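Researcher: Next entry: Protein kinase domain-containing protein (Helicotheca tamesis).
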Amino acid sequence: MSAPSAPPSAPIPFPTLALLPARRLNAYVDVPHVEGDDISMATLRRRDSVSGNVVVRVNADGSFSSKAYWVQRKVSKVTCGSVRAGYVLRPMASSNEDAYSATRPWEVIPTSSSTANAAAMDDGSRNYEMVTIKMFDRAKLSALGNKTVDGPLTELSVLQMIADMHPEAHHVLGGVELLSDDRYIYCIMPYTGDGNVLEYIGNCGRLTEGAARYFFRQILEGLSFIESAGICDRGLSLARVLLNGNNSFISVSSMCPRVP
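Model: Predicted structure:
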């Protein structure tokens, strides 16, 4: 006769979410000319502009970080927010304004700054460093409260927990930075702009055995990483396996209890 099973227990809590302070600025953004930039993302239309969509981290001494993010078009909706494409910004080298100035001008960073990236442009790669920005409305998060244990804050906790484990090397998307101002929480993530595996199969039809094996190996490596981190992702699907070039990355969902 087998021994009785142990009673169910609550999932292990994730580490406390740590958000870095940020500000959203009306800043001058310069877009340097890059050869062949007709292949750039369609949302980047202006050479010089004043944008209210520049998000930058605020340091402990009140100065601004040397890296900022230019929020662009909405890609999709998520619970309590949206997913947007974004560009990585750096301070303009020609500017005389210091790190404490909210009017310091910024510029996008061409990926063609290295020989390797310049060569990659020939096959249609994007010209500027990009990120994915998940924006969560703090008021909506507050209204959601504790109505469900599976929510955006759980997803953010997962991303923060695995951030130092180099998840991209294991085909899992992690968070680059978690920023927050009075209105939004900004989850900065690596950019994947080539859709997902489900869309890929729908557009291209049945995969060859070699292609199926290629993606399957990457997905298995991602699943192994998630399991080793003690995460049980109950929302995994092919629609959450995102593509960037020839590589696939699992995007963890908000339905992720932590297990021993």
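Model: Note for the record: The chain has two domains: 20-190, 197-250.
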